[in-house]
Amino acid sequence: MKLLIINGPNLNLLGVREKSIYGSESFENYLEKLKTRYPDVDLAYFQSNIEGELINKLHQEGFSVDGIILNAGGYTHTSIALADAISAITSPVMEVHISNIYARESFRHHSYLSSRCKGVICGLGMEGYRLAIEYFLNQPK
User: Fold this and answer.
1) How high is the mean pLDDT in each 10-residue block of the chain (141 residues)?
2) Of 18, 78, 93, 127, whose CB neighbour count within 10 A is largest?
3) 71 is in an annotated binding site
4) Catalytic pick from 75, 97, 112, 129?
5) Whether 22 is catalytic
6) Which one of 3.40.470.10, 3.40.50.360, 3.40.50.9100, 3.30.1360.170 gives the CATH number of domain 2-48+66-73+85-137?
């Protein structure tokens, strides 16, 4: 199984930014733990702070991978273009958020992406990525 994790803007700063919200672990460190835990899963990772690069990656990989785990960061609440890109591809997408977006500022309560995704995992910290992997692994082949 091949899964792609895509992280959007500011998620390159995990481990150093707003530790009370996002924790103190870098995503790269957490990704290594995931790869160790799931040695039979081909886990690819992409991060960008640029909306167009996220769209290009969805277009590039969204017809060949078994699933995409997407944390679009702030673009979740602003990007119709990302929502359209999710609709355009055939690979299923799971939306993940480290924080509980519904317990934060009201502008974070709306996602343009959720209706285009298989589901949403939020508020469970980095564990949400693992749960998304489990979802994809447990789908009928």
Assistant:
1) 97 85 88 98 98 98 98 95 98 94 78 96 96 96 71
2) 93
3) yes
4) 97
5) yes
6) 3.40.50.9100
